[in-house]
């Protein structure tokens, strides 16, 4: 494995608790079912509050504002751009580029 791929893999693995596929979260939940239940509870509450003004525009910044609003109670990285590779070794950055391209046409 190249140094770059190893670094990307290490960055990807840091978003999970060791030896699991449960995302590191602000509540310290290490069980996938518990985290799923918390996500539903917190995101439902945030949806009921309504979206922030920054989320009104269909832009990448608006998308990040929505993500932050919905997940801010659960994840320190909510609304932030990821640079780590996904499990399939495709960069999340590619999603950003696709989103920007789609909205520029």
Automatic annotation (TrEMBL):
The lineage of its organism: Bacteria, Pseudomonadati, Pseudomonadota, Alphaproteobacteria, Caulobacterales. InterPro entries: Fido-like_dom_sf. One of its GO terms (biological process) is regulation of cell division. GO terms for molecular function: AMPylase activity; ATP binding. Its EC number is 2.7.7.108. It catalyses: L-threonyl-[protein] + ATP = 3-O-(5'-adenylyl)-L-threonyl-[protein] + diphosphate; L-tyrosyl-[protein] + ATP = O-(5'-adenylyl)-L-tyrosyl-[protein] + diphosphate. It is an enzyme of class 2 (transferase). This is protein adenylyltransferase. It comes from Caulobacter sp. (strain K31). Keywords: ATP-binding, Nucleotide-binding, Nucleotidyltransferase, Plasmid, Transferase. It comes from the Bacteria.
